Structure prediction request, 233 residues.
Amino acid sequence: MKLWHQSLKDNLLDLVFPQQCLVCGKEGQLFCAKCSDSLSYITPPVCTLCGHHTGDDGVCPMCLSGRVHLDGLRSVFNFEGGIAQAIYALKYHNLHSVAPLLGDFLADYLKQSPIPADIVVPVPLHPSRLKYRGYNQSLLLARELCRRTGLKLDEHWLERSLSSAPQARTKSRTERLENVKNAFIFKYPTTTAPRVIIIDDVATTGATLNACAATLKEAGALSVWGLTIARER
Prediction:
């Protein structure tokens, strides 16, 4: 019933405020056909661990030089053009209607490139940042993904215990790693050893997702993969 009410609400809003393409402004959809065709999908070869573009299949030098807790990190798009605009609209302009569209992209990706998973966990925000923003965009994406795939969502497993600076404000990979070191805690012990997918909007170095994976592995997770809408080049 709740989902039916939400669908009706969305349809009414579309009548009053018709959707427009986030790129060109054409009325009808968040991505018109032309702009949808121009989205920059990530294509192989990519690093088998971090999912970053590489010249050959295998593990990239960056992953070989550091400790990687993730079993793998995959992203659907390069962080540019229309996808960057969509993520900014969701993350900073409260445009929640973007989340279902991005959830479709995540679900389609998993259908084509399955990742072992029993449970989906969003990257959490610190309570102070959550209060300031009013919502967690990673949780919105995780909910949409689970609705489309039937995967189980647990939004409470991880908690951000340190209010560190946003990763976008850090410059180097070393700074990003230090910024999220010991930033997460596992809230709900379990007797199982689940396979986890962590959801976030954008991956840059993967430091945040790797820190989440370290905490989940310490808590007994069998495997931890990261999945994001986009990846910075």
